[in-house]
Amino acid sequence: MNTIMRKSVLGIAGLAFTGGVFAGPVAAHADATPVAGKPVAVAVQADKPGVDKGKLIPHGVQGAQSKITLNGEQTGNAKAIIAATKKAGLPERAAVISIATSLQESKLENLGHLGDANDHDSLGLFQQRPSSGWGTPKQITDPEYATLAFEKGLKQVDGWQDMPLTEAAQTVQVSAYPDAYAQWEQQAADIVAQHWNS
């Protein structure tokens, strides 16, 4: 996405773009290998009543999938993303996109400043930057605030519900590795299916 379009999306979403190239830079420790490939239909593992599995991964996953074992803190952060998504009145698909984005950006860890390993001033679950208008350091290290800020940007993307996950996430984040979000879609969908109604 070009810079003018990015500024328009952030402006519409109420997020100021105040310098820097990326509004949602990739965390220094995130896997930078782009994932490519054709959609592959994969079933969501968890079976909870009330979760429409077809809406979690409507187009099938793109390319090879990655998975990590979550600790208690990471699971708590995933649940916070789901709670914020519900608070925003958004459907399960928004939670899948949000969790996959956080898995890529921070592995669902609420990261503080990483010093020299940090990408600019990126913080929190989504590696949002105070200098790019996402909020104060205190705000963007609050899981609810960070999720609502990400999803506010997502809601301003025309047709986000029908986009492949990596395209929707990239439109908001503007990462240097735009295809990397796709590898987390299956795990994000499994997390949402497991915790949406818990």
TrEMBL record:
<protein>
    <recommendedName>
        <fullName>Secreted protein</fullName>
    </recommendedName>
</protein>
<feature type="signal peptide">
    <location>
        <begin position="1"/>
        <end position="23"/>
    </location>
</feature>
<keyword id="KW-0732">Signal</keyword>
